[in-house]
Fold each of these.
Amino acid sequence: MASRGGPRAAGTDGSDFQHRERVASHYQMSVTLKSEIKKLIYTHVVIWLLLLAQMVVGHLKLLPHDQVAMPYQWEYPYLLSILPSLLGLLSFPRNNISYLVLSMISTGLFSVAPLIYGAMEMFPMAQQLYRHGKAYRFIFGFSAVSVMYLVVVVAAQVHGWQLYYSKKLLDSWFTSTQEKKKK
């Protein structure tokens, strides 16, 4: 166009380069979705660590059972839910579609399925608490079924959004791959 201090090329004001400065939308989307998924994974890790702490305290009897109840059955398979999150994180550096697909499938198996089972397992106890006001298990003075239903609701939302954003990220990566094949 022009040298630093010299004259500009005829017919230009120097701003005609801006169309070349834009990043393709699927790349922008990929970066944004990766960021959102990472936030959800970190939230999942916090939930996972809290459940792990409850299980360790319950089994090792570090606190009395009226302080921290023994874990419900659904919590054991839910511990495997850390694996899909790790696969998701491993898929990000090189946009590895295979790892992301495995992460999505295993999220359904190791995260969502135990949460559904947990909601069904705790339902009779929640019903008893609602109808009769009786709770037999407690976590720091709160009924264990109420606390764990809160955990199930939050975890279901985290995993639901994680699957949604992962699907959109997968679509973004396929768009990028298809455009590369056209060239």
Amino acid sequence: RSSRVLEIQAQMSERAVELLGLPGDRPCLLLDVGCGSGLSGDYISEEGHYWIGMDISPAMLDVAVEREVEGDLLLADVGHGIPFRPGMFDGCISISAVQWLCNADKKSHSPPKRLYRFFSTLYTALARGSRAVLQLYPENSEQLELITAQAMRAGFTGGMVVDYPNSAKAKKFFLCLFVGASGTLPKGLGTECADEEQHQAKFTNERTRFKNIKGKSVKKSRDWILEKKERRRRQGKEVRADTKYTGRKRRPRF
């Protein structure tokens, strides 16, 4: 409902479709991975293309149905693969979704295996010569390397396009992947005056300061509780709202 969020979503969707390099003389069929409430699909429809959206959250898809989006919707976990016939799509976009495959929400989840399953089946579902443009928010350089490595292992070529690399707020990461013959990687916006070294993504380890030596938040801590609640929200479950009392330890007795 936030106008700011809607504006950012529309801008990233427009940029992702632009990076696809679609032909201007015919409508195309696109796959929207992590389509949510269908905001990206609205832009695809405005451009005269058709689309199918996939999302793991029933609640988000219900919102898309209520909004009467023009695309078809599929409830599915992309970590299990893309269930469409070979060469079906002319392109694929994803806004702020792929990085969630790096999380192990269940004991049976293996991020490398889930990423490879996603990319290998996506490669099959895309037509030869098409592209996939995946906007993501990598948590650190290791996560970005894992995502890119599994994409290349699945057969894709291409690389990362970074828009406005010198801006703290406007910086955006787009993984631009080619199917079949590799094309020329597009240049990121705001890089005309930047040095070649600044094209590379820079990361900090600020997010890990509250974690123990194993890389996980201390059990029963506030961060651990917030992370657990966020995982449940992504799974479409009802969770109590976060407050200043969340994670606060009770006294031994009242």
Amino acid sequence: TGLDGADIPEHPEYKTLIKQQDENYLWNIYQKIISVGRPVTLIATGSLTNIALLLKIFPQIKNSLSEIVLIGGCIGIGNKTPSAEFNFLSDPDAAHIVFTSPHVPRLVMVPLELTHTVCATPNVSERLRSLASPFSSILDHLLHFFASTYKQVFQFDSPPLHDPCAVAYVADKDLFEEQMMHVDIERTSEFCRGRSVCDIFDMYRREKNCVVVMKIKEVEQFWNMMLDAIELADKKSPVNSTKSN
């Protein structure tokens, strides 16, 4: 589900809302983007199936995009196979479409090498739990749902945080170091399917099609920004009132 590990109250009209979105989701995404009236940043935090379809069906979306920032890929070792990251491995063909599309003004990839440096340490957990609300409890469960897996498989003492890194990049690009390079997506290899081939040293001399975010300068600054946002959301969260009722 993408939210395993958390007890989230179900909205009474949830199933109806989801059915409506399933039937019209691409059109809804397109309309939402063009209705802004200026080029927008599109942030992708999962496999790129929907984004690839959007670019194929509505190529004119280029006029309404400033950039696509995505979580996915890796320069080195993957987290689903030795060579591939989960999102790209889920749909390598979609990733290939996005990375080769002429309809993306600017493409930014936030790889595992970056997200694996942003970990929910005990200090972070303590600050989150100090809110002592149902909303903060849900987030704490989500942050630590894969903690044991990361410890057993990857020897991480604290679980990393992935998706918010893309949002943080958009919010404060000065917090990150980046490099423009050519990135290919492997789709057919027996052992490397879903691999993001990052030509860091420009060995192929191909057109540089992607900005790869290489490093976050201040991890503590990221967490301060993240926890400030969580505190604001906590004050407005309907989950807190739902639980109390």
Amino acid sequence: MNDWAPIAKEYDPLKAGSIDGTDEEPHDRAIWRAMLARYVPNKGVTGDPHLTLFVARLNLQTTEDKLKEVFSRYGDVRKIRLVRDLVTGFSKGYAFIEYKEERALLKAHRDANRLVIDQHEIFVDFELERTLRGWIPRRLGGGFGGKKESGQLRFGGRDRPFRKPINLPSVKNDLYGEGSSDKRNWSREGTRDWRTRDRDHERSRDKRWPEKERSWTWGESERERDSKEERSRGRERKDRDR
């Protein structure tokens, strides 16, 4: 729990498949594939990975010139690589943008995320393929983020960070008074308070008891008196009828 962080420091497919990074068993087949995969980053990719941004969810009509126009606002761009299909040449909807300075990289990472380009809200993050140890791409069951419709959600990245897990053992200890000494003292004091309240309640009830008895006896005498009057009236009516 002490080393927990919303963003993963290294890639673990099992943790990435968990909403809080605490799963012990994979819950879908893609996680099994990612755990068994032995992925080697593309050695043909050049450039400084620590100065490169990953830009996704692009409009398929967006071009390199449009990306350069937008991302040049944050600093000098060294290189733009829009990933295209090898057969058709069409855009796959994501790109890598390398800056010349780290300051421009951080500024673009902070301000360009969820920016709308060609009617599409884009997603911006650091490049993870060459910087995050153990990285497994999406096509092998890894990656981060995902859509709910597909059911293959991955956590630990900027798009879907880990949620803070609930520490169940500490909650159990607190419920049974097994926590710290301060909590134990507090619970004991609380029991004393309840006991004193019970005693006060008993005393007040004892004081009120005679009053209730008097009210009950008064009520009973009234009832007896009414019943006697009813009986006498009934006898008078019978005498008249005779």
